[in-house]
Design brief:
Elements: H1 3-29, H2 38-65, H3 67-74, H4 79-105, H5 111-143
Helix pairs in contact: 1-2, 2-4, 4-5
């Protein structure tokens, strides 16, 4: 895939991730009616898996076909920042896997655990949002640098 195709694919996948993220937050914010929350738990399990799959897809594209290699090719001086972003991918994947396991094992009457998982999901989403902002910054640095040219003297 050429550089333009990679950038376009990353944008498309990140847009899909944004929609999936918003749907997950909507389910987290969905008020519980009555004394049962089994429908909300079911919806949360489904949407969390979908979110995790979309995160994995975006990370795989970034790592294998996407911007990370382009940044390193264009501006090797940003290798530490790229390594940090890759490390964050591992951390976010692990956190999502742990949440998924907790959701699968959770009893439908354990509201305390349910609320804790929802808060952990909010935390992961915030961490992902922050991560995406750092990715944008490194992309702007690598692709929009003024490398000089004809000038004054």
């Amino acid at each position: 895939m050429d550089d333009g195709g990679i950038v376009k694919q990353c944008r498309i996948e990140n847009e899909a991730l944004r929609h999936t993220r918003n749907a997950l937050l909507a389910i987290i914010d969905w008020p519980i009616e009555g004394t049962t929350y089994s429908r909300k738990l079911s919806g949360l399990r489904f949407q969390q898996r979908w979110f995790q799959q979309q995160v994995e897809r975006v990370f795989a594209i970034e790592e294998h076909d996407g911007y990370m290699n382009l940044v390193l090719d264009l501006e090797p001086k940003y290798s530490q920042q790229v390594k940090q972003l890759q490390s964050e991918h591992v951390s976010l994947r692990n956190r999502l896997t742990q949440i998924s396991t907790r959701l699968d094992r959770m009893q439908p009457d354990d509201l305390t655990t349910f609320n804790a998982i929802c808060e952990e999901l909010r935390s992961v989403i915030q961490s992902l949002d922050d991560h995406i902002e750092r990715e944008k910054e490194i992309l702007q640095l690598a692709f929009n640098q003024d490398v000089g040219g004809e000038g004054g003297s």
